[in-house]
């Protein structure tokens, strides 16, 4: 019998798909990096060797430690994997699309990968340096609630004009549902993204001017547990 949506062979009985909320909370980007950072031999974990490679970066290891919440060893591991996957020292958008299509093979991750890449690409030059990559990861994995919400706002603010429109919020939500919506439990209806956006936007747009500011976004998310849990789910699909 053909595998079901969760990728398991069926026995005539419906089985719960594997893409649960818990599974989505695992960081795809970290898994991708650390898979390439696995030690290749007895000398590959030599900290002096790793330190010398990290020092070839424009910003030194100590500076990155100060800017992030990663330890020196964590930064070394992340850089080892980053260097193996991206010898040029830069990640492009196609790489993001490849990563997410591997982790979400049953969905279409192309649009979400595009939006996520733009959120990491702080210089807006079409490539992400190691420094920008780990600073973003540090916020998402270990930042305060406010720092994470600031990052999430930047993701939803697609054109980076300092406001979130209903169309922008819907575009992000739809891209997430396209990537994993059909394989969540319970199954998500096609009109669910629009319903979510309507509900969120009504609560967030406090002065009814048709856009959500960073202050409205953070204040509403912190006061509303339902929105906060939803935002955290989406913000953790990294």
UniProtKB/TrEMBL annotation:
One of its GO terms (biological process) is regulation of potassium ion transmembrane transport. GO terms for molecular function: calcium ion binding; DNA-binding transcription repressor activity, RNA polymerase II-specific; potassium channel activity; potassium channel regulator activity; RNA polymerase II cis-regulatory region sequence-specific DNA binding. It comes from the Eukaryota. One of its GO terms (cellular component) is voltage-gated potassium channel complex. Pfam families: EF-hand_7, EF-hand_8. It is found in: Cell membrane. Residues 108-143, 144-179, 192-227 form the EF-hand domain. Keywords: Calcium, Cell membrane, Ion channel, Ion transport, Membrane, Metal-binding, Potassium, Potassium channel, Potassium transport, Repeat, Transport, Voltage-gated channel. PANTHER family: CALCIUM BINDING PROTEINS, CALSENILIN. Belongs to the recoverin family. This is Potassium voltage-gated channel interacting protein 3. It comes from Paramormyrops kingsleyae.
């Amino acid at each position: 019998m053909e595998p079901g949506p969760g990728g398991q062979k069926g026995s005539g009985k419906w089985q719960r798909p594997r893409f649960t909320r818990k599974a989505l909370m695992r960081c795809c980007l970290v898994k991708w990096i650390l898979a390439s950072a696995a030690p290749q031999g007895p000398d590959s974990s030599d900290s002096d060797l790793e330190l010398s490679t990290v020092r070839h970066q424009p910003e030194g290891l100590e500076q990155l430690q100060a800017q992030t919440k990663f330890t020196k060893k964590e930064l070394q591991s992340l850089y080892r994997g980053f260097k193996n996957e991206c010898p040029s020292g830069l990640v492009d958008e196609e790489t993001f699309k490849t990563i997410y299509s591997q982790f979400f093979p049953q969905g279409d991750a192309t649009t979400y990968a595009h939006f996520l890449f733009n959120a990491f690409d702080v210089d807006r030059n079409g490539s992400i340096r190691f420094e920008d990559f780990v600073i973003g990861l540090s916020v998402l994995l270990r930042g305060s609630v406010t720092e994470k919400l600031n990052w999430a706002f930047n993701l939803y603010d697609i054109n980076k004009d300092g406001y979130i429109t209903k169309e922008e919020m819907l575009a992000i939500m739809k891209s997430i549902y396209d990537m994993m919506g059909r394989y969540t439990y319970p199954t998500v209806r096609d009109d669910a993204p629009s319903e979510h956006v309507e509900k969120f936007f009504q609560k967030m747009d406090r002065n009814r001017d048709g856009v959500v500011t960073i202050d409205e976004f953070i204040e509403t998310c912190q006061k509303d547990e339902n929105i906060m849990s939803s935002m955290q789910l989406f913000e953790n699909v990294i």
